[in-house]
Task: inverse folding
């Protein structure tokens, strides 16, 4: 899954995924999500090996959860700002 950053934001017609732990760290739910979400559906994904089911039972990284909360707050602020700007232009 080293090339996950290359595929970020792209949908690929077929995806081959090696779900082994990467040599420079550990496999996380985020890594797995990025790799799996590149495909167009379940039928276009090929896994190279079995994976540890426990991965799906782990908690999300607290820093990722914090970042998600921060982005949600920014999204709300931006929506409110946009509503005001549009209202002022009328």
Result:
């Amino acid at each position: 899954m080293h090339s996950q950053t290359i595929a970020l934001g792209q949908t690929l017609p077929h995806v081959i995924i090696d779900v082994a732990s990467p040599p420079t760290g550990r496999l996380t739910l985020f890594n797995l999500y990025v790799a799996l979400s590149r495909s167009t559906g379940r039928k276009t994904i090929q896994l190279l090996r079995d994976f540890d089911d426990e991965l799906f039972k782990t908690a999300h990284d607290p820093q990722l959860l914090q970042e998600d909360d921060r982005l949600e707050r920014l999204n709300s602020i931006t929506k409110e700002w946009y509503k005001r700007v549009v209202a002022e232009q009328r």
The mean pLDDT is 81. The radius of gyration is 18 Å. Strands lie at 15-17, 45-47. The first helix runs from residue 4 to 7.
